[in-house]
Amino acid sequence: MTKLLAAAVAALLMTGCAHAGPAPLRFDLPDAPPEDAVVFEARDGQTTDAVHGSFFVPENRAEPNARALELHYVRFPSTSDNPGAPIVYLAGGPGGSGIETAKGRRFPLFMALREVADVIAFDQRGTGASNDIESCELPGPPRNAPYTHEVVTRAYRDAWAFCAEQWRAQGVDIRGYTTVENAADLDALREHLGAEKISLWGISYGTHLAFAALKQMDDRIDRVVLASAEGPDQTVKLPSRTDAYVDRVQAAIDTQPDAAHAYPDIKGMLRRIIDRLAAQPATVTLAQEDGSEFALTFGAYDVQLLISFAIADPNAWPNALPVFAAADGGNYDPLGGLLLRFLHDDDMIRLGAMSTAMDYASGISAARLAQVREQATTSLLADALNAPMPHLVGAEPVLDLGDAFRADTVTDRPALLLTGALDGRTYPEAQIEATAGFSNLTHVVIQNAGHNLFMVSPEVTDVVLAFMNGESIEITTITVEPPSFAP
Q: Least enclosed by CB within 10 Å: which of 55, 141, 219, 392?
């Protein structure tokens, strides 16, 4: 019943239909403070004049007494004499900060897009400057015992129960941290900016948010750039597609003779390591930073989680392959060192309210969950790629947005899809499926690029800029050099 209720609320919020139910609640929100001029400094020292602003939204639009959230942004004024619809950057994660992203490697792209319109580095609710919720941490599984699917599932479900109660005790309405609410914030931002329409520019979870926004405010969106797209029912990735991704990495390795000689079958190598550790966990003694030694015991699921965290971009493989080759030969010390550094650096679980709740609320349909569970029994990484989803399914039913939210997005808005052929996080096949309902789609594949594809080539910037300018995109492929995989 709670899932049905959540689905009904989600459907109402998404349709915006005046005849679908009671009139929307009205909220007594504080007035937005005036924008203030700032000198914005990127991490590499570059600076530009910008404007900081904020506005208020209800934490939960279904709750009459919802507390007010102050959402922050940085606006880079357009250099055009006739600017178009403001371009709003949607960070990935979920949990990424748009403002912090603008300070990093993508700063030149933010600056380039000013030729078209004002560019907005937006901190979504619960992120960056728009976050007023304390992160939550508590002890997780001990480091001296191997992880398993059951251990990880139990640990994260216990952590969610603990953290959700802690957040509620702090006055947080966790029901407000869904992509439906996040998309409604974009319409509130549009109104705050005084714009008839906005354009969206997102990556990864930012595209997931864009899909929801297209359902809720399609006529108020001008155009959309989707990079490394994640569709409405793709929060949990299909394990079989990880296997296909590893095959694509192998094909890239095979183009380099020295690498092909050293690593003729990386899938077979990883499978051997995982199978042996499933049968017999390994223990290695490792030196720690304080000079002490630690005996780390790990098994198959530890390695599956480690690989899952590392494969978003192909640049991780050159450093990881020698470690896996050593483990395949029986030397587990380098692999244990990686696990101690990236997976077992301590025994704490840390959850962010926004990042965990957004993924949980987007959830997974019953049909897809059955697929994931079936494929996990035979695929290379089982269900490790998505941890802690689908491990948390059912832990907080009131959050689940239901299948109305997860239905395909259908739109005729001009859209540009950018896909990295070696994306190990949002797989190319899934991105094509996610945009099947887009009747005005331009698709450009960046060969040898991974998940974080924006700055891999100046051609990517040129394509994004041309698309936002309303120009026709003639190319379908951009090719960049792959990393050197040779040891």
A: 219
